[in-house]
Amino acid sequence: MNIVVLVKQVPDTWSERKLTDADHTLDRESADAVLDEINERAVEEALLLKEAHGGEVTVIAMGPGRATDAIRKALSMGADKAVHVSDDALHGSDVIATAKVLAKAIGTVEGFDLVIAGNEATDGRAGAIPAILAEILGLPQVTQLRKVTVEGTTVKGERETEEGVAHLEASLPAIVSVTEKINEPRYPSFKGIMAAKKKPVTTLTVADLGVDAGEVGLGGAWSGVIEASPKPPRSAGQRIDDEGVGGSKIAEYLVGQKLI
Amino acid sequence: MSTLDPASESSGITADLFATPERKELRATVRKFTEREVVPHLDDWERAGELPRDLHRAAAKVGLLGIGFAEEVGGSGGDLLDSVVMTEEIIQAGGSSGLVAGLFTHGIALPHIVDAGDPGLVDRFVRPTLAGDLIGALAITEPDGGSDVAALRTTAVRDGDDYVVNGTKTFITSGARADFVTTAVRTGGPGYGGVSLLVVDRGIEVVRRLEKMGWHCSDTAELSFVDTRVPAANLVGPENGGFALVMRQFQVERITMAVEAYATAQRCLDLTLAYVRTRETFGKPLVKRQLVSHKLVEMAQRTELARTYTREVAAMIADGRECVAQVCFAKNAAVAACDFVVDEAVQLHGGFGYLRDAEVERHYRDARILGIGGGTTEVMAELAARRLGYTS
Predict the structure, then answer these.
(1) What is the ipTM of this complex?
(2) I need a labelling partner for A32 at 20 to 30 A (CA). Which of B44, B232, B243, B304 fits?
(3) How many angstroms separate the CA of residue B26 from the nearest CA in chain A?
(4) Coil, strand or helix: which one is B296?
(5) A191: nearest CB among B28, B32, B76
(6) Looking at the domain B244-387, which fold is it?
(7) 0.80 surpassed by pTM
């Protein structure tokens, strides 16, 4: 079974995340870049399926040059090869442009059976890529899964929501997205780290993929950021010393805030 | 907690060697392994006085036990610099030098067997140990001997296809758990020319577990052999050729202890920095006092100097350069930096620093052995003096 995993390099959630003043895109210099944690889980799930059913795991990433670090991490975990779409023209792409490019990149992987993505990235948080991809590629989508199994030519999954658990299935090839409940990702072994150096990474531009550069990037985006300002610092709270009437003072405050 | 990541903070020429993409990835794996498999249990292991075998298997699974050992003998590949990265990060992510001693005892128990190259011994001892299934120890020191390898008294007398071993070994790291002990024995006449290395894998009598000031999670034993019959096939290298084998490996053991020393210092600096930023006395955080911030600078400075020099010497060893005196300098300098930093770390933690709940308290006790084990500070100075010709 051949599996494609979509991965993204994102700013570390622990570091300060900012938009640039120039064009309100992500300021990649201000933060440490890491493989998005949800993608570690997506890679882990692909590796578990490969271990159960055989086949090959291909990682696809779209991002600037240094996204190779995120790709290397996925290869260190055990993925077999990678496709890295890197092109200055992609700077500022929105979800639709990203999905168009990823769809073409997935098309370069011969005979894939399953595409696994995280449900949403920790930076953009649109959570729309898997669905848009399914639309473009004309494939069934089974999203937001906490469990994935493959039986013959069918992928089955469990989607947990506040209303309950839905049991879903689709015929392969299909696109699935996974949530953070899916698994606990392995960490790369030392052998895996050393082996990753020798694994093939194909680097492609938008031209290589036959995508018109005008359709992608900031210029081709259907949505734009007009203004961004940092969250205002939290103001000091109101302090109430309890001298026997603390309870009613708090109640008064909450009434004033229209909370009770 | 704020951490000073040496890999990202140091941008020196030697430091770059330790920050290749692969070594950064290794550091991340080691940190995760330590946070997941070690930190939640370390206090229990300290109380139990030893590490569980499961930990050896877990470390083998991610390839950590095999770092620095060739894949042909069951290792993971990599070189001394990879081992340095691993040792640094285990300690800096919340492990300890004691944990390194107990989990990586094979780092001193196996290299002679690998060097000698007997495939039978490699299959019986090296592979299963690197897979986490066996635990090995190295036994050189004797109750009457100390670091004087040439004077050891444990005897191994050839009798048919066996050696018959008699003697006592002490301060043996992992000795209470060991399935086999790479043992320095006297097979010939007096002096260094009569010393051999023999793998004793049966009849290992633990006379007693030794209770220590620190390194509580690392079991240490006194072992005794009484007419213990060991197959002659367990001889490592040529008979009466053990002295050179032992001496060659001291280099790596000593540089590793230097790494443990500056990594412990770095960890204590990180812990202390976090503490003095939050701890308020007389209305302001401790770190706002010049006395405290200057003390932190001195801790950082000594740590950084020790790290930079030790890494340089490690790179020399990995490159096969002669650097016996430099290893002595590195060990003594890193130990001195560590002694200073752990002491100041406890001091800046105040009363809390004296409690078992404070991690710096454990490092303070653990650190004391680093200037003793693997050759004392004094032995290092003497060795350097001889090597440099400063004796006449």
Answers:
(1) 0.81
(2) B304
(3) 6
(4) helix
(5) B76
(6) Butyryl-CoA Dehydrogenase, subunit A; domain 3 (1.20.140)
(7) yes
